[in-house]
Fold this sequence. Notes:
The protein is mostly helical. About 80% of the residues lie in helices and about 0% in strands. The chain is built from 14 helices and no strands. It has helices spanning about 10-55, 60-80, 90-120, 125-130, 135-145, 150-175, 185-210, 215-235, 240-245, 250-275, 280-285, 290-300, 305-325, 335-345. Helix 3 (about 90-120) runs antiparallel to helix 7 (about 185-210). The longest helix has about 50 residues, at about 10-55.
Amino acid sequence: MSPDADPRPGRFRACALLAGVRRALTWRLARTLALGQVLAALVCGTAVSSQYLSSGFSVEAPLLQSVLHYALLGVSYTPVMLCRTGSGSVYQIGRRRWLQYFLLGLVDVEANYAVVKAYQYTTLTSVQLLDCFVIPVVMVLSWWLLKARYRPIHYVAVSVCLLGVGAMVGADLLAGRDQGSASNMLLGDGLVLLSATLYGISNVWQEYTVKNRSRLEFLGMLGLFGVIISSVQMLVLELHQVSAIQWSWQVAVLLGAFACCMLGLYSLMPVVIKESSAAAVNLSMLTADIFAVFCGIFLFHYHFSGLYIVSLVLIFVGFIAFNAVPTPTSGMDGLSEDVAEGERRKSGDVVDCTPL
Length: 356
């Protein structure tokens, strides 16, 4: 090195880089991590309420549960859209994009239904492992459609999270948790993979919508079409199971708890996706199974294993590493229409009645 060379610029750059990392690891990442764990807790709430309905009251009606949560979603968000006029009104959105939201509702309803049906044919271990297929599906679709560009650290972080899932499955096996039926593992595993693929499509679709259009539009239209599709499917496939339910206040409370947890999950997920990405949200929700195990230790007398703590730490480490480096996206084609709509909304053509 030349005696006249000044090493300080290099140190300054390193210090600036470290300062940027420290900033990334404080507020933004802490908020994303906290919101992600709220999502995981809500998923845990749906799992616990569903298990209570099944084991305690012999209620196995996943489509009825879907009808309730889509109806609650529609009641919460669709009426707000009725206050809008111009291009942001329900009529205009439905006229231009009704097929998109019908397909989105169909994908979301069938994703929920397929994973519930899978438990009847395959084991808990298979569901936990194969359900992680949603992460590569989301990453591939985000790379292809949203033009997300992942770096090596993101692949390493996903691998660490999946290693955490492996530790959780190992803990379940060592603790002797009930693995459920394996009457037709090929069918059950296929249903899990189908569900994971449909969830991945729904999540990427959601990321595009909330980043380029609006959270209200996504939730309002999903609630509207979701309740229609799930109601028709329930009448065709599940009418006998619904009529056989022995109704009581406990069943009503558990169904209400499931619907409220789903409402919270669907309402908060677009917020987290808008701040991070669909892939990051799915990584954060890997801890939901661990939270369900912790609840099961007290409620269903599961055996505890230290591997659950190892799994939780690995998932947290992988999630933090994934979010420490941003993954910018350039969006899909057709954005100009949404930008124009945003400009019309700013100019006063659209009256937004969204509550603060």
